[in-house]
Amino acid sequence: MTQLPPMTPDPSPPVVPDGEGLGEDAPVILRRQSLRESAARTYARALPIVPVRARGLTIEGADGRRYLDCLSGAGALALGHNHPVVLEAIRAVLDSGAPLQVLDLATPVKDAFTDELFATLPPELAAHARIQFCGPAGTDAVEAALKLVRTATGRDGLLAFSGAYHGMTAGALAVSGGAPAASVTRLPFPYDYRCPFGVGGERGADLAARWTERLLDDPKGGTTAPAGMILEPVQGEGGVIPAPDGWLRRMREITAARGIPLIADEVQTGVGRTGSFWAVGHSGVVPDVMVLSKAIGGSLPLAVVIYREELDAWRPGAHVGTFRGNQLAMAAGAATLAYVRENDLAQRAAVVGERMLTRLRALAAQCPHIGDVRGRGLMIGLELVDPAQPDPGPECPEATTETALTTGAFAGAYGREDGRTDGRTDGRTDGRTDGREDGRTGTGAAARRAAPMLAAAVQRECLHRGLIVELGGRHSAVIRLLPPLTITDEQAQAVLDRLADALDAAIRALGDRADHELPPPAPPFTGGRR
User: Fold this and answer.
1) Residue 467 in this model has a pLDDT that exceeds 80
2) Which candidate, 12, 15, 19, places its Cα nearest to that of 63?
């Protein structure tokens, strides 16, 4: 049986029905939802619950069952459900008689939110920044950012990355991984476990950066003149894949040298989630544009674009939206930003997240069905795999990768300048090709085939044990944990205990099927929800 190291007893309430007559409503409500809502609904399919009360990490359903919520509104609830400072801010606006919706007019609430937001930004950006309030969804802010850089540069092309997710509207979808678009050039994103070059580690990230640099400078590369590059400091829906700090700095250098605005999509990574107030802070990179949503609204809908004033080439009305003046969201957002900043919750997320990652890596050492454990702060992912099936990955079949690297085909096209044909940058002669010193392989060749059936079973078993988790990754085989930044040590232990138990139960229930999954089909691109 897969078990974590010993932990203190679970402090949360037992997951048993304890409602008083509420349970009778839940099946009726769920049935009506299935009959009336669109087939595009997502979370409701995997999480058949009817929340009626919530506080912090805990949700109570209409059936009286209690759950630890590690979905947190897809990362929108930095302080968890109904935090007192958020409720107080909302009540203050309601009691004041202030207008709740003001389009783009100036208000004291909006001014206070902008002050608080600018206080958290990288100083080099905040000193000369502009803010655009968008329709209240991250995808609209992405659309605004793309429109902005195209207007400012007069160019049309865009640079985006494999595995990315930026939203579901047309422009945002076009720069997401798996969605074809003629004006978007798709670039390799460093993915240690399933490296597109089959090597992983720092070497894989270096090859990804070299590929980008050479492609942009190749007059025959077929790249439309780029108006901007958009990236996520940690790919969330793509499977919780942190961008290496060195690679991010290379992207900043490459774009700055060529006059290409760099857009950081911090919709899910922002407000302390990764252990830094903004995820770009880990690398010290200062982007030209930041796309912000989710947690900045303090649990209510809000989205903005922050950008350098030199890019402000828009004409009046170039990007508008009726609900960009949501006063309740601005008040809740200002309170959330201030609370996270004043209580240093980003550092708290870094500490708790590292403890959780350490314990999950101990679990992975005992369980061959866990292919990789990764994350940053309280943005954590476990990639589940079929231990019996090696899978070099569709991005780069083993034979093709080996041939390219050993014959110098890749080096000649977009790689080395020093005459080496083995592609090495570190002088190693010991035969290692992953660039790692810690014993982990981290290579595409070592990866196992994704196990989405097992991941879905683990999600169900988690729900049965009172734990809500999300799935992500290329084949929905990554268990994602996005707890609020206010999670206590005891709650973190309870989450991991329940997850370990759910994993063990799912493996037992599936039996041989857990070890011999069929190759996951390539589903139509849907991305996450934004």
Assistant:
1) yes
2) 19
Do 189 and 241 form a contact (C-beta atoms < 8 A)?
yes
Q: Give whole-number Cα distances, 524 to 136, 178, 383, 474, in Å.
A: 26, 8, 20, 11
Identity of residue 355: R
223: Cβ contacts below 8 Å, ≥ 6 apart: 157, 159, 185, 215, 216
Is residue 380 within 8 Å of 353, Cβ to Cβ?
yes
87: burial class by Cβ within 10 Å (0-12, 13-18, 19+)?
A: middle
Distance CA 177, CA 12 (A): 39
Write the CB contacts of 118 (distance below 8 Å, at least 6 apart in sequence).
126, 129, 131
For 100-130, what is the HEC assignment?
A: CECCCCCCHHHHHHHHHHHHHCCHHHHCCEE
Measured distance CA(493)–CA(486) in Å, rounded? 14
Helix 489-510 to helix 452-464 angle, to the nearest 10 degrees?
A: 130
Residues 124-142: what's their mean pLDDT?
A: 94
Other CB atoms within a 10 A radius of the CB of residue 153 amount to 18
What is the tens place of the pLDDT at every residue in 255-301? 999 999 999 999 999 999 999 999 999 999 999 999 999 999 999 99
Q: Which of 2-11, 474-483, 494-503 has the lowest mean pLDDT?
A: 2-11
Task: Report how far apart, in Å, the C-alpha atoms of 212 and of each of 134, 199, 250, 286, 358 are.
Answer: 31, 17, 10, 19, 33
| Each residue's pLDDT tens digit, 319-340 | 988 888 999 999 999 999 999 9
CA distance 53 to 473: 30
- Phi/psi of residue 437, each to 5°? -115, -5
Is the confidence at residue 381, as pLDDT, over 50?
Answer: yes
Q: Round to whole Å and give the CA distance between 47 and 287.
A: 37
Residue 126 has pLDDT above 90, yes or no: yes
